[in-house]
């Protein structure tokens, strides 16, 4: 089988086009860029790189391909233009629809600029939620992975003040079910071991520092454990990531964005990969932003995109 991987560069003014130009499809893989050809050609010229991709028409042969979608206006490296926000979403929708129809085996995404999309008057909270809506409003679970550590999130792009209301027994149960299921079925882990963080300091200190653990987190863990899932928690977040205990853990479930992501980015920022669980197709992504100040300079590091592509191919072959 030749894996067919769709790749979207993301924000055209950011480093996404630079990174895509520095990615060669691995042997035996069809890599389909979904982007504006003129942007890639102009950026390649500025960086002194070559660019040659065949037009995509559904070939099942290894190589580099391009499905052309034009921007509204020419993109300038490092300068946002909200007129191109619809283009960014069009590339994502085209790639996702291709995955849903079986045209592509997986989707790898470059970084988008949420602010520019919102400034264009388009409600957008992130790739994760956008792709979930295109997939029929499934519940998506964000997980970042690097060698030796996987961190999933019970909530994603929420203001911190809204997080406690979102941590319900029902929601946490569904998130853990999705995390457990994808670790088993996509990552090939027969009996996933999941560590669940507490929400409050010291995991609530028996209710003295908050009752979310008592009223929502502990009941969800007990019920799922009774079904045979291997869960630990709620564990105080300040000790959840100790190296020795992580040896007995396949994934840590953090309850909000900045509880888990700083840990994995500190551990291995260059090689961390964002994986969206719960979708009906495989989606991986870089773990960094658009880095406008690096666009067109040649200094952008493609390591995270390399890692995202390699993981997408690995998961495709396991599938």
Automatic annotation (TrEMBL):
<comment type="pathway">
    <text>Cofactor biosynthesis; pyridoxine 5'-phosphate biosynthesis; pyridoxine 5'-phosphate from D-erythrose 4-phosphate: step 4/5.</text>
</comment>
<feature type="binding site">
    <location>
        <position position="274"/>
    </location>
    <ligand>
        <name>substrate</name>
    </ligand>
</feature>
<feature type="binding site">
    <location>
        <position position="157"/>
    </location>
    <ligand>
        <name>a divalent metal cation</name>
    </ligand>
</feature>
<dbReference type="GO" id="GO:0000287">
    <property type="term" value="F:magnesium ion binding"/>
</dbReference>
<dbReference type="GO" id="GO:0051287">
    <property type="term" value="F:NAD binding"/>
</dbReference>
<dbReference type="GO" id="GO:0005737">
    <property type="term" value="C:cytoplasm"/>
</dbReference>
<dbReference type="GO" id="GO:0008270">
    <property type="term" value="F:zinc ion binding"/>
</dbReference>
<comment type="subunit">
    <text>Homodimer.</text>
</comment>
<dbReference type="Pfam" id="PF04166">
    <property type="entry name" value="PdxA"/>
</dbReference>
<keyword id="KW-0479">Metal-binding</keyword>
<comment type="function">
    <text>Catalyzes the NAD(P)-dependent oxidation of 4-(phosphooxy)-L-threonine (HTP) into 2-amino-3-oxo-4-(phosphooxy)butyric acid which spontaneously decarboxylates to form 3-amino-2-oxopropyl phosphate (AHAP).</text>
</comment>
<keyword id="KW-0560">Oxidoreductase</keyword>
<dbReference type="GO" id="GO:0050897">
    <property type="term" value="F:cobalt ion binding"/>
</dbReference>
<comment type="similarity">
    <text>Belongs to the PdxA family.</text>
</comment>
<dbReference type="GO" id="GO:0042823">
    <property type="term" value="P:pyridoxal phosphate biosynthetic process"/>
</dbReference>
<feature type="binding site">
    <location>
        <position position="257"/>
    </location>
    <ligand>
        <name>a divalent metal cation</name>
    </ligand>
</feature>
<keyword id="KW-0521">NADP</keyword>
<feature type="binding site">
    <location>
        <position position="128"/>
    </location>
    <ligand>
        <name>substrate</name>
    </ligand>
</feature>
<keyword id="KW-0170">Cobalt</keyword>
<keyword id="KW-0664">Pyridoxine biosynthesis</keyword>
<keyword id="KW-0963">Cytoplasm</keyword>
<dbReference type="GO" id="GO:0050570">
    <property type="term" value="F:4-hydroxythreonine-4-phosphate dehydrogenase activity"/>
</dbReference>
<dbReference type="InterPro" id="IPR037510">
    <property type="entry name" value="PdxA"/>
</dbReference>
<dbReference type="GO" id="GO:0008615">
    <property type="term" value="P:pyridoxine biosynthetic process"/>
</dbReference>
<keyword id="KW-0862">Zinc</keyword>
<keyword id="KW-0520">NAD</keyword>
<protein>
    <recommendedName>
        <fullName>4-hydroxythreonine-4-phosphate dehydrogenase</fullName>
        <ecNumber>1.1.1.262</ecNumber>
    </recommendedName>
</protein>
<feature type="binding site">
    <location>
        <position position="202"/>
    </location>
    <ligand>
        <name>a divalent metal cation</name>
    </ligand>
</feature>
<dbReference type="InterPro" id="IPR005255">
    <property type="entry name" value="PdxA_fam"/>
</dbReference>
<feature type="binding site">
    <location>
        <position position="127"/>
    </location>
    <ligand>
        <name>substrate</name>
    </ligand>
</feature>
<feature type="binding site">
    <location>
        <position position="265"/>
    </location>
    <ligand>
        <name>substrate</name>
    </ligand>
</feature>
<keyword id="KW-0460">Magnesium</keyword>
<feature type="binding site">
    <location>
        <position position="283"/>
    </location>
    <ligand>
        <name>substrate</name>
    </ligand>
</feature>
């Amino acid at each position: 089988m030749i894996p067919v991987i769709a790749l979207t560069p993301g924000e055209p003014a950011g480093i996404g086009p630079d990174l895509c130009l520095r990615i060669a499809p691995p042997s035996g893989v069809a890599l389909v860029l979904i982007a504006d050809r003129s942007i890639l050609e102009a950026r390649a010229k500025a960086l002194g790189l070559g660019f040659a991709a065949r037009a995509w028409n559904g070939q099942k042969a290894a190589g580099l391909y391009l499905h052309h979608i034009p921007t509204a206006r020419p993109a300038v490296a490092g300068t946002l233009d909200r007129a191109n926000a619809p283009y960014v979403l069009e590339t994502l929708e085209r790639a996702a629809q291709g995955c849903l129809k079986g045209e592509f085996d997986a989707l790898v995404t470059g970084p988008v600029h949420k602010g520019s999309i919102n400034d264009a008057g388009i409600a957008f909270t992130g790739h994760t939620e956008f792709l979930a809506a295109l997939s029929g409003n499934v519940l998506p679970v964000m997980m970042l992975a690097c060698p030796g550590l996987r961190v999933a999130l019970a909530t994603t792009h929420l203001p911190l003040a809204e997080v406690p209301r979102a941590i319900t027994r029902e929601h946490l149960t569904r998130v853990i079910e999705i995390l457990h299921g994808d670790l088993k079925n996509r990552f090939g882990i027969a009996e996933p071991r999941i560590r669940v963080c507490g929400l409050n300091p010291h995991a609530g200190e028996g209710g003295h520092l908050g009752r979310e653990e008592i009223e929502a987190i502990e009941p969800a863990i007990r019920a799922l454990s009774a079904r045979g899932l291997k869960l630990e928690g709620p564990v105080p977040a300040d000790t959840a990531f100790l190296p020795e205990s992580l040896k007995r853990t396949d994934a840590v479930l953090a309850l909000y964005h900045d509880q888990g992501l700083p840990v994995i980015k500190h551990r291995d920022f260059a090689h961390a990969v964002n994986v969206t669980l719960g979708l009906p197709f495989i989606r991986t992504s870089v773990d960094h932003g658009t880095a406008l100040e690096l666009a067109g300079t040649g200094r952008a590091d493609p390591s995270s995109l390399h890692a995202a592509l390699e993981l997408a191919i690995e998961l495709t072959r396991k599938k």
